[in-house]
Amino acid sequence: MAGLNAFEENQETKVIDTTKKVRVGIIGTGWIADSHIISYLKQPDVEIVAGADLVPGKAEAFFKKHGVENVKCYNSDEEMIADQKNLKLDAVSVCTYNRQHAPCAIHALNAGINVLLEKPFTVTTEEAVEVMRAEKKSGKVISIGFQPRLDANMIMVKNVVQSGVLGQIYYIQTGGGRRRGIPTPFGTTFITDETAGLGALGDIGCYSLDVVLNAIGYPKPLTVTGYKSAFFGTDPNYSNYVATGHPEYAKKFEVDDFAAGFVRLEGGIILDFRIAWAMNINTPGDTIILGTKGGLRIPSTDCWNGTIGGDLILYHEVAGKQVETKIPQIFPKPGDPTNFDKKIRTFLDAVKNGTPAPVPTSQILYNQAILDHICKSSNVGHEIPVVIPEI
Predict the structure, then answer these.
(1) What is the pTM of this model?
(2) Residue 200, domain extent
C-alpha cells in the first residue's frame, strides 16, 4: 500500500530566471488564445512579441483587449514566421481551429521555433505523423495542450495505477460528456468539417483518453471498432440552438456529437470508450480501471471539466476480505496555479532548459490514432487495425 502515498504536492516555490526572456508568438486569437495570453502574462520571463490571425484586425483587437502593447500582428502564421529574422521567436502557441493545427505546427518547427499546440493534436493520424517528422528534423520542443494531466487528482490516478496495487490491468471503461453542451457560443468553428474535422471526439474525448492511457503508460492501440453519431447537432430544435436563436447551425453541423470505441491495446488491455457533447443522460458512467489485484473507480463529472467528480475508490482484498479504500479528492488551495498555468509553465521550462516536452507527441500520437480510427471504423462499419505510418 506504500505506493498509494507516492504523490505529494511539491510545496517549494520555484525560482524563475528572469534574465532570459522567452519570446512568444500566438497563432490564432480566438477564445482559447485568451487562456494562453492570460497565463503567459503571469510568467515573469515571457515577452509576447507577435500574433497572427486570418481575420483582418482580429489579432490587433485581441492584444488591445489584454493590454499588451508593441506586438507585431500578421494575417497568417506563414507571414509571421517569414519575419522570424526580425522577431527572433523562441516559441509559439498554436490556438487555431483543429484543421490548422498540423500546418501551423509544421511551419513553426521548420523555422526552428518551439511549439505549444492546443488539443486535439491533429485531426488525422497521418497529420500527426507529419508534425512529428518536422519535430524530429527540427530538434525543437513541441508539447500538446493536455492540462488535465497536470491536475493533482489525475496525477493521483496515475500514481495509484503505477504503484502496482491493481495488479495486471485488463479492462478500462472511460469517457464522459455533457447532457447538453455543443460548443457554439462563438459561431460554427467547432461544428463544421472544414474547420473542426472532429467534434466531441477532438474537443473532450482526447482528454478522457489521456486520463487512462497516461496512467497505464500509453500502450499502442492495435484495433478499433468505432461508432459516431450527430442526432443532436443536426436537429434545429436542439435546445441550445433555440436558446441562442441559431437553428441554422443544424445545417452546418458536420462532425460527431457522440462517439464510442472498443479498442484493443498492446498488453491484452481492452479500452471501452464513449464521449458526448449531447445525450439524454447525465453521464455515460464513471471511469473504471480493472486489474487482477484491484479495481479503481474514478467518479465522472456532469460536464467534463478536467478533473474528477468525487473521491477515488479502490476495490481490493485485505487478509482475504473484500474492502474499499477511499482516496480523497484533492482540491486546489487559494493561490495555487491553475492547471492551465502549469501547462504554460512546464512548456516554458522545457524551452528554456532544453528538456523533453511535458506532454510529448510520442504519447499523444496513440491518443490521436484512436480518435481517428474511431472515425474510420465508423465510416466502414466494422473493426479495423490501427495503422500508424513510420516517422
Answers:
(1) 0.95
(2) 148-336+368-377
In a shared domain, residues 343 and 226: no
**One domain for residues 171 and 243:** yes
What tens digit of pLDDT does each residue of 111-146 get? Answer: 999 999 999 999 999 999 999 999 999 999 999 999
The CATH number that applies at residue 39 is 3.40.50.720
Q: What are phi and psi for residue 156, nearest 5 degrees?
A: -65, -40
Which cell numbers hold the place of 70? 508593441
Burial annotation 337-365 (CB, 10 A radius, 16+ → b, else e) = ebbbbbbbbbbbbbbbeeeebbbbbebbb
Distance CA 253, CA 257 (A): 9
Clarify whether residues 117 and 152 are in a common domain: no
Predicted confidence at residue 150, as pLDDT, reads 96
327-358 pLDDT per residue, tens: 999 999 999 999 999 999 999 999 999 999 99
The span from the CA of 274 to the CA of 164, in Å, is 26
Residues 197 and 345 in one domain: no
Give, for 154, the enclosing helix (H) or strand (E). Answer: helix 152-162
Q: Are 197 and 123 in contact (CB under 8 A)?
A: yes
Please state, in angstroms and rounded to a whole number, the distance separating the CA atoms of residues 223 and 374: 10
Instruction: Give the span between the Cα atoms of 18 and 12, in whole angstroms.
Output: 18
Q: What is the DSSP string of 377-391?
A: HHHHTS-EE------
Give 245's contacts (C-beta < 8 A, 6+ positions apart): none
Instruction: Check whether 181 has a pLDDT greater than 80.
Output: yes
